[in-house]
Amino acid sequence: MTDEIYSKKISAGSRRSYYMDLKRRERGDVYIVFTESFTNAQGKEERNRIQINKEDFKKISDGYTEVLAYVHDRLGVDFH
After folding, report:
1. Which of 52, 79, 56 lies closest to 68 in space, CA to CA?
2. Core-most of 14, 42, 50, 68, by most CB within 10 Å?
């Protein structure tokens, strides 16, 4: 059994949302589930999920920061 500790919804237009759910396993470990939810071309809801375990939080955070810096600095995309 898992407990949901915290959830954050990010709306990205009328057909797409992202969720970040922090959960705790019975033995106490925490993990994050990232979910993309969208309506496909046929009008059906689809979901894609990825689970990140606590030992990888820092690695994922560092990689995300690096990718955003590349997009901003090298590609000139201003998203701030």
Report:
1. 79
2. 68
